[in-house]
Amino acid sequence: MPLGAALAVFAFPGRRAVVIAINALMGLPPVVVGLTVYLMLSRGGPLGVLGLLFTPGAMIVAQVILVMPIIAALTRQTVEDLWFEYREQLISLGVTPRRAVWTMLWDGRITLLTAFLAGFGRASAEVGAVIIVGGNIDHLTRVMTTAIALETSKGDLALALALGLVLLAVSFAVNAAAQILRDMVVRAQG
Amino acid sequence: MIAVGLILGLALNASGVSADYERTIVVASTTSTANSGLFEALMPRFTEETGIIVHVVAVGTGQAIRIAKAGDADVLFVHDEAAEQAFVAAGYGTERRRVMYNDFIIVGPSGDPAGVRGMSDAPAALARIAQARAIFASRGDDSGTNRAELRLWAETGTDPKHASGTWYRETGSGMGATLNTASGLDAYALTDRGTWVSFGNKGDLEVLVQGDQRLFNQYGVITVNPERFPHVKAVDARRFMTWLTSDEGQGAIASYRVDGQQLFFANYLAPGS
């Protein structure tokens, strides 16, 4: 989020290029990320000595790469709109750009929940990358989505569907909690 | 971005979520053994006896071999004898042992449009399917089953890849996923018996061709060479191999049943091993 906000507030040469790059990375195909991380973390790859392949750590690496651009890009958009509104005022108050970044983030926190939820949605629904780098190992790197893929391939469609419903319920609960939080904050302010 | 991910990943691992203090080995194996449920039956017994936790990565045989060749697994447990021997000969593995066998079967829709029911000559049955241009679902993923299927096609003199996308459909996925496809398309498919018996979505499919010598399906276990990859857990890997081929491991394999049917036949000590 700070990355996104900084992109909105600081003007520097090549900012447009970075913004375009971050926006484009929102659409990163998970399997490509999975394959790249796999090659990096494999014992034959540059980061092989870390021994991270087929561990939860490898899955986190992949997820961070997938989720970060989404959160950064959505944050940038939100903060840019706020910045447009507040800019004159903050500058006249002599606020440094660094302080301004935090002010924007705090002020836009309710709207920024959406960025968080988008990132959460991407991460929790993701299967392509985590199955490649995690290996879908039972009790270690098997997550809801890869378990659904496995049960489907076993032909146990009922269990696969049930797991899918649970995942959906979890996602629903997180989003509902976010909505309630938002309403509470709005009410407290209003 | 990558750096942040790495730091998070390492921090989590160091915090013990992956439990480095536990003894674990990574076994690269095939979807046919994983989808049949065999590992869920075997591994708890091995872990109870030795304290070693087994992490199974289930992919096609071709990919499993590549994972082991990159040093990303401690043990290889697959089914392609020629490729396994080549793996050891090239110095990637220290020792190979036969573990068990089952057989491949050709399944297809009960209507049997190509008329192969009851045949025991597998290549002849495939030739008939090709002639009828009946839909055939192939793994198409360089797995052990896929390689066995292509060897059978080679004997027919027909190259099904020319028909890829028409009646010959390459799914590029695991055994279970391919059976799902076959079930949905009313297609023929070559499968190992283990996956078939435990498969839950058979639909209109049934076993049509079996009993050919060429449908024999041998599984082998190989320990990855620590001289080549110093980080592999050679001691624990060897323990796993000796357990699988011990009386106890072989007994556990032979007693694994789904719907009353034995899926794998332990044969480490069978003549010729």
3D architecture notes:
The complex is a heterodimer of chains A (190) and B (273). Chain A is an all-alpha fold and 190 residues long. Chain A has a single domain, classed as MetI-like (MetI-like fold, Orthogonal Bundle). Helix content of chain A is 77%, strand content 0%. Chain A contains nine helices and no strands. Chain A has helices at 2-9, 15-25, 30-41, 56-92, 97-107, 109-125, 128-134, 144-153, 157-189. In chain A, helix 1 crosses helix 5 (97-107), helix 3 (30-41) packs parallel to helix 7 and helix 4 packs across helix 5 (97-107). The longest helix of chain A has 37 residues, at 56-92. The radius of gyration of chain A is 20 Å and the shape is flat. Chain B is of the alpha/beta class and 273 residues long. Chain B folds into two domains: 21-101 and 218-266, D-Maltodextrin-Binding Protein, domain 2 (3-Layer(aba) Sandwich), CATH 3.40.190; 103-215, 3-Layer(aba) Sandwich (D-Maltodextrin-Binding Protein, domain 2), CATH 3.40.190.10. Chain B has eleven helices and twelve strands. Chain B has helices at 2-14, 31-35, 38-50, 61-69, 81-89, 122-132, 144-156, 175-185, 193-198, 234-244, 247-254; strands at residues 23-30, 52-59, 75-78, 93-109, 136-138, 168-170, 188-192, 205-209, 216-224, 257-258, 261-262, 265-266. In chain B, the strands form two sheets. In chain B, strands 1, 2, 3, 4, 5, 6, 7, 8, 9 and 12 form a ten-stranded mixed β-sheet that branches. In chain B, strands 10-11 form a two-stranded antiparallel sheet. In chain B, strand 10 and strand 11 (261-262) form a beta hairpin. In chain B, helix 6 (122-132) packs across helix 7 (144-156). Chain B is globular and about 55 Å long. Chain B starts with a helix and ends in a 7-residue tail after the last strand.
